[in-house]
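To the team - guanosine-5'-diphosphate complex, inputs and output below.
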Amino acid sequence: MEALARALGGDGAREPHGDVPHVALVGYTNAGKSTLLNALTGAEVGVRDRLFHTLDPTTRTLRLSGRPHLLTDTVGFITKLPHQLVDAFGATLEETRRAELLLHVLDASAPEAQEEAMKHAVEQTLEEIGAGEQPRLLLLNKVDLLDADARRELRLRHPDAVLVSGVTGEGLEELGEHVERELAHTLCPVELLLPYADGGSLAELHELAGDVSRQDTPEGVRVQALIPARLAERFARFAVAS
Ligand SMILES: Nc1nc2c(ncn2[C@@H]2O[C@H](COP(=O)(O)OP(=O)(O)O)[C@@H](O)[C@H]2O)c(=O)[nH]1
Ligand SMILES: [Mg+2]
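Output:
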């Protein structure tokens, strides 16, 4: 396992969408990762996402406060067929290790002992692939199958988790808020002056920054925004003292 992790390497060439935060769904097979990917991003696949058209189908754009995030559905944590494991695991490993945040999806409708065993298996796998220290949020999925008592009991056992249902959409708004909070440290407030001649940079800023406040001045467009730190670095030449 360690050899495989080494072979795949960490920091390689610059990612094509390296300025956008990566979030990865991890978890036991059948926990509901793919269902959640669809529920969270279904409405997002559209014109605005042509920027990311080169992405593979298991990665989609998730917009929070207008800012895009790349959300990846990983496979292969626990699979039944060994030959699938090898293929699927390479991609999973890479996506997991480069994600700023892991969403650990757990089937909360399973009996407690089984739920704990699946949770443990995933945590152990994350340790093995060197992703044990990565920021992680626990999602208790399939809560639509649970009554009020069962939900209360889950909240007591997992006080930091978010209760969700990929089928009914329950909890997804709260999940978005949690994700934004977890990734707040990757954002940087900037004040920029973009020359009118550089329409490309302005368009890129609008695509990646979400909600911005802008003001037209004789010198160019003055923009205040909260943007990913890596994008801020790239746009440093436009910075103005506020
Ligand atoms: N009732 C219910 N079923 C769900 C939910 N999420 C997923 N499922 C079902 O659980 C099964 C596995 O879901 P899937 O998304 O394929 O899991 P994955 O293997 O983690 O990608 C499917 O039959 C889904 O319809 C949920 O929130 N509630
Ligand atoms: Mg799946």
